[in-house]
Amino acid sequence: MSASSAANPSDSVSFEIKSAQLPLVALILKTTNWTQLAADLQKEYGSQGEDSDFFDHDALVIDFSHLPADMPLQDIVPLLKVLRSCNLVPVAVRSANPAWMAAALAVGLVEAPVEVHRPRPHVEQPAVTEVVHEIVRQVPGPATMVVDKPLRSGQKIYARGADLVVLAMVNQGAEVVADGNIHVYAPLRGKAMAGASGNVNARIFSLCLEPELISIAGVYRTSENSLPPDVNGKPAQVRLSNDGQDKLIFEALNT
Are 149 and 106 members of one domain? Predict the structure, then answer.
């Protein structure tokens, strides 16, 4: 106990530490070519990139799970500099071999736990036998951003920590981004990126799916690859496959 605390026992405590669950962006490394990686990051998110304002000093985890376990050690500092130039803040590393982990810890990063994706168990829903009219507690739903005007080329909407609902057309050259789901009740002809902070359960819905680019949790597909006829220009949803293969699934909606 400090002297000041002993002298003033009625004073309030100066701080409190609690556990916190915060959204983090994950950079999943898929190459050991540092030069190529830096060039690709700068091209996409650097000061001259197409999405230079996509990140706003978001905390980042560097994920080594897709790289060989015996990958030779390199200097990690240049990578950190590139990430910071893209308005990302590297704070942790996960799934790295001991040598890489030691190098990361030496420059101030921390070790993050490995994500474990468990399939949801099927729960048989019991038949409803009684209707309860009394509301014991109201639980607020997730935040949602609603946009009711058309988005023109060059416009960008980001629903940070929320779902995004667009009631008008998303034209070519426009971008809609959300940490949650994206619903477009009109033609979607621009770019749509759901699960931007890594939510692999996010989905994209549109009444007319014709996107330039579609992405969920960083897994993307561009208009260079034509959509299947049963979803192209029709009501459809997009989600990630449940087999862990990082593959986008396109499904027609019954209207």
Answer: no
- Cα separation, 246 vs 183, in Å, equals 21
Query: Do 45 and 51 form a contact (C-beta atoms < 8 A)?
Result: yes
Give strand pairing partners of 35: none
Query: What's the CATH number where 191 sits?
Result: 2.160.20.70
Is the predicted pLDDT of residue 186 greater than 80, yes or no? Answer: yes
Residue 171 and residue 222 share a domain: yes
Are residues 149 and 80 part of one domain? no
Structure tokens at 196: 């931007």
Domain boundary among 62, 92, 111: 111
Mean pLDDT in residue range 233-247 = 87
Closest Cα to residue 141, out of 89, 190, 181? Answer: 181
Task: Give pTM, 2 decimals.
Answer: 0.52
Question: How do residues 129-164 score in pLDDT, each as one tens digit?
Answer: 444 444 444 444 458 899 999 999 888 999 888 999
Terminal alpha carbon distance of the chain = 67
* AA identity, residue 107: V
Reported confidence tier of residue 223, pLDDT bands at 50, 70, 90 = confident
